[in-house]
Amino acid sequence: MLTTRFVTGAPNWIDLGTPDIEGATAFYSALFGWDFQSAGPEAGGYGFFQLGGRTAGGGMQMTEEQGGAPSWTVSFQTPDVDATVKAAEQVGGAAPMPPMDVMDAGRMAVLTDTAGAVFGLWQPARIKGLEVTGAPGSLCWVELYTTDVPKAAAFYGTVLGLETSAVPFPGGSYTCVNPAGAGEDGMFGGVIDIADDPTGTETTPYWLPYFEVTDAGATVAKAQELGGQVRMPATEVEGVGTIAKLTDPYGARFAVIKSAPGPT
Hints:
alpha+beta; 8-stranded mixed β-sheet; 4 helices; 16 strands
């Protein structure tokens, strides 16, 4: 499961790029109970989404020069951003945003894998990572939608040491992901062929963050009321929970889940 006990290869940060940070803050505040806290004048408008005083993610307003579609970026922990970028480039990845220090907070880079999916790297310093995961309103799972599952598994295995395993799933199997040696208890996400994306609208590979909620149906209704769009309505998946896929009012994709109770 995804926790704040971060290890190499596990997601340890998410951030939102949006054309309207005030509008996005209003949306996610009403949906998840977040507040936005500026990282300070030297951070270029970047700030932190807070859930009950704990950091649930980051975000900033994109400029016209930066371009790009509004999106959530999932970042993974590494002890050495520069070495990880080199490893990615050697197996066909690229680094549209090369390694850079973020003041004294840590070191980061933004990469694309061999299929074009965007992801981030975070090498912790003062900021270790998210301060809350798994609770309602916070990150609890991530999924990669890609054109070639085995090739993606090989890429992330080489670059981040991630391991994959097939888990029985209604109608077939699901490829789960965990950090090296972490086993089932360390599973934090899955890899899915983009052709099987139930929204049926995507052609470019991407990482999708899931946020835990107390009621998926009510969250969908609230998101629509706030100007969000529904990509997949609330759907119950046996043994998993009730999930839905949405976009915020500016087009950034995310999913929500009311997880099924775990074994007792």
